[in-house]
Fold this protein.
Amino acid sequence: MRATMGAARSRAARPSTATTAAPVGQLDRLVDAFGIDTVLLATVDAQGRLKGKEFDAAGFVRRLRSGALSPEMCGYVLGTDLSMTPAQTGPFSWQSGFGDVALLPDLRRARVLPWLPSTALVLAEPISGGYPHPLAPGTVLTEELARLAERGVVPAVGIESEFVLYEGTARDAAVAGWRGLRPAVWDSRDYALDSPAPVREFSRRLRQVLAAAGMPVEAVKGEGAPGQVEVTFPYGEALEACEQHVLFKHAAKTVADDAGLTASFMAAPSTGVGSGLHLHVSLVDFDGRPVLAADPADGIELSELGEQAVAGLLAVLPQVAPMWAPYVNSYKRLADHSFAPARLAWGRDNRTCAVRVVGHGRSLRLEVRLPGADANPMLALAAALAGIRHGMEAGLKPPPAVSGDAYEHPDASLVPQSLEEAVGTFETSASAGELLAEPVVAHLARVARMDLEHHASRVTDAEVERGLAQV
């Protein structure tokens, strides 16, 4: 794990440098070997989506070799809401004049995208003044990894993602006014192995393209709600796990559209349905030794550091909720007896808790169950790691573990109840500002408030149904 540690520290602390000729040769070989004619140069926006430009592959390589390519994109990409509405204030707003942000391509991680014909992806890092842009999601996570490394620990991360498949494409749904949506499975198929043919074929195709892209999944299963699917990925390095999740969502939506389906990653796509983004986090020291278990050989009890990590998560995550629940809709998932957390409790192998301790010995890990499927994994993980670090630095002790129904536990605080409440707490939290830096808090709060503003003046179907004839 020493190499991982060094990479995290150097990326956060040093200026970015120009891409060397050797990686250009690697991309050139990739283009030749797979008949690539299109290169997508992309970065990750605040919502956790790929944003960028398409290039002719041969021309892209040629311009890189000559040094003629200096890619940029409008900086507002890092500060818009879901529908790409420009902000009114802040560094990416009308006030700023919408200047460009420089992009540094990372050619070492160029990869073929098997779900798109003859296409390769090159991820790029937003740059400001020669350094990684401080408000880019990848930078926020990398900074947190570097701070944790200063405490002598390195995280490994596995991600579980839930989403709902609907019949018809997203364009079909838009034409229908987003009404009459029908899940691709009409009943609960949790753990079932008899899904309808379109869902089986979607699952097979998704697994195939992800494996071909070097991102094999651990498992795919049906979930509890009609049309709901869960995909689990193996453990890996933190930043890589998050970047792969962004690519996975891109693949899932593309494969679904090709099959005449829609894959929705809303946290609560309909009343009573919730889709989560569960973060499995383990910690090791610089020599790769696990540090969460009191007995790394085969124990299930937490070490002192493990207890501090749990306590930090419970203390910090409610203060930084817009990082793991960024939309008005996000909070409609956090309901009683929904398998999504409603109270800030922890327990051993207890799925009613916000933090579930699972595994034993080397595999002992913390499952953070608060984020919804709509969360940007980079920001959600950065929030979780900031909580773990706070617990370690403050020497916190967690409350007693909950062994029964955490939804009924009177001593556990409720999770934030709305985005408005969450943003207010986020903006005024001294801990959030100290842990994440005030500009990051202000930026993410501003983006969250754009979602609040979007919904504030709109009349919903639920309001009309309830009040049209009765008021």
Notes: Residues 1-14, 17-21 have pLDDT under 50 and may be disordered. The CA atoms of residues 157 and 241 lie 7 Å apart. The domain at 2-133 is CATH 3.10.20.70 (Ubiquitin-like (UB roll)).
